[in-house]
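ok, trying the design again with the full structure, not the truncated one.
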């Protein structure tokens, strides 16, 4: 390995063809955890607060997965996620339990829709986590742009389910606000001068 910067607070390492692969992989993993982005011409060190913002993006992605898995578990138990029961009662005018007894066919169909919705949410949550964990961490611009697509689902959820339930609206607004803030904090990593120089090298 070739040391690009030997200061204790900023350690730059770039793999060379003369190093054994295990040593090279270990060095790159260390850089990945530190928040350093490796490019062909050198290395760009990401400030610690941006590493924290990246970790919060991973946490947000984990929340997406947890929400989807929780919905699927509730669908299997009672046919409807517990946080959706208030929305159902507001829209239909009857409680979910009473509707299951009077219109079982209709509620089975709603459960099918809920399961399909939760699986789609799970898939997008997995994709979001993979993008944030790997290409986003490496500084790929397309990964930064791709993360904004989640906002479409987040805002739609707030305007539909959140419209009928204040508790859902309060929770959904956390994602609506946190995601763009965290992405904007990361923007200099993808579009700053240092990153452009590393790409052009």
């Amino acid at each position: 390995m070739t040391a690009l910067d030997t200061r204790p607070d900023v350690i730059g390492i770039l793999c060379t063809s003369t190093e054994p692969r295990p040593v090279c992989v270990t060095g790159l993993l260390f850089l990945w955890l530190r928040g350093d982005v490796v490019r062909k011409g050198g290395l760009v060190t990401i400030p610690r607060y941006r590493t924290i913002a990246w970790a919060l993006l991973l946490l947000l992605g984990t929340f997406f997965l947890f929400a989807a898995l929780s919905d699927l578990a509730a669908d299997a138990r009672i046919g409807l996620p517990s946080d959706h029961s208030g929305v159902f009662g507001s829209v239909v005018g009857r409680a979910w339990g009473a509707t299951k007894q009077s219109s079982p066919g209709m509620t089975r169909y709603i459960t099918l829709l809920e399961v399909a919705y939760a699986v789609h949410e799970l898939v997008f949550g997995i994709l979001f986590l993979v993008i944030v964990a790997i290409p986003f961490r490496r500084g790929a611009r397309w990964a930064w742009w791709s993360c904004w697509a989640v906002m479409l689902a987040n805002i739609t959820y707030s305007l539909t389910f959140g419209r009928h339930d204040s508790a859902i609206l309060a929770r959904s607004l956390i994602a609506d606000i946190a995601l763009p803030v965290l992405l904007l904090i990361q923007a200099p990593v993808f579009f700053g001068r240092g990153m452009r120089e590393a790409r052009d090298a």
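Keeping the full-length input from now on. The two ends are 19 Å apart (CA to CA).
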